[in-house]
Design brief:
Elements (H helix, E strand, L loop, with lengths): L2 H8 L11 E6 L6 E6 L2 E6 L63 H25 L1
Keywords: Flavoprotein, Oxidoreductase
Protein name: Cyclic nucleotide-binding protein
InterPro entries: FAD/NAD-bd_sf, FAD/NAD-binding_dom, Ferredoxin-NADP_redctase_2
């Protein structure tokens, strides 16, 4: 997240920011009323009407280990030319395996861009499958 956004959120009087906590329960009758948090070994209840999560900027790609999908030094998935010569824009180092969104190396890390990536990947998958059928 950009520092300017962190500063803007921190300045909001109606927002409490909690770092490093795990949400263990959400409670309420018809709407959200309470959030149970676990920070280390300490549990606490917070009265809240809304919850917004930011899980961080580290990609969760360790599960890709051993499958041939190349990642950069920070764990983001390489796509397009960064994945290998001739790879399509969202294609990974494994032909026919595509990637969209924030986990892509070099992506802009914005929701609108991730949605656009998803739409582009669908079109690229269709083209990939059409070529595969034509070659069969």
């Amino acid at each position: 997240m950009s520092q300017y956004l962190i500063d803007r959120i921190a300045a909001l009087e109606n927002v409490d920011v909690t770092y490093g906590a795990q949400i263990t329960a959400l409670r309420g009758s018809k709407t959200l009323e309470e959030v149970e948090l676990l920070s280390g070994t300490q549990r606490s209840m917070v009265f809240a009407e809304q919850v917004f999560l930011f899980t961080g900027a580290s990609p969760n790609t360790s599960w890709l280990g051993g499958c041939g999908v190349a990642v950069d030094q920070n764990g983001f998935v390489r796509t397009g030319e960064a994945a290998g010569p001739g790879s399509k824009e969202h294609e990974t180092s494994v032909p026919g395996v595509f990637c969209a969104g924030d986990v892509r190396s070099g992506s802009t890390k914005r929701v609108a861009a991730a949605v656009g990536d998803g739409a582009a990947v669908v079109a690229q998958i269709h083209r990939h499958l059409e070529r595969a059928v034509a070659q069969a």
